[in-house]
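Q&A log
Question type: sequence-to-structure
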Amino acid sequence: TMEPVVLDLPDEYKSSRENTPFVVVAGWLGAKDRNVKKYTDELRAMGCVTLRSIQGSWDCFSPFASGRRKFARRLLTKAREARAELGMSKSPLYLMFMFNGGCWSHATMTQCGMLEPGGEFEDLGPHLKGRVFDSSPARMTLRNGPKVVCVSMGVRNMAARAVVHALFYVYAVVAFLVVVAATGSTTMHIDEFWRTCASAPRNGRELYLYSDADELTEPGPLSELIAARKCTGSSEEGCDIVEMRWKDSRHCAHLIDERDEYLDTLRGFIV
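Response status: OK
Response body:
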């Protein structure tokens, strides 16, 4: 079953809505709605209208993109409908992606050109003012993939973790063979994900929130991606990027570990 898409309005919602930020939040792999709601509650306190949901675990790991496309379309369809119903069709739109469970939506929207001219949601594109990446994107590998599964499933027992590691490697081999048989391509979807995040159109502001202490979203590859998006050579302009990098903040817990600085940065970017 798909997670619900939840719309929330600020407590003091004013009738003049054209300048009210509309923020769509895609939660992280393994999160519950109550976890993501902590973030949308903070955004609501800033005066934003929010829409939140969480992509299913299988869709995050599947070598096929159909489930991810369905989720991304559902998220943008709900956003379009809510904005129209609230009289907010011209209000500033922000997309917030948490870890790769959320960031897959960004990659899928980009790969399908959903917000670009001629795309399925081209009407939303001109109003997209920024994207927020919390603990994302992460460069997924065979080394850190099993860690992600263990964290998302809450597996802490050493024996169980060993089983998860073994099953993950079996899955990786089977997924690779299935993709080769079905498409003739040897490119894994996790490699395509990273390339998409690195080469996505530079047509809006971007905020990256990450930490040196994050074992799942390793700061090295992410900082290289950010640097490349800031400066892309003489033929193309770089992105307008805001970057907040902490030393000790935990994975998808920056709101808790660095609350004041996190909220100030988010407020400065969106509001």
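Response note: The longest strand covers residues 128-134.
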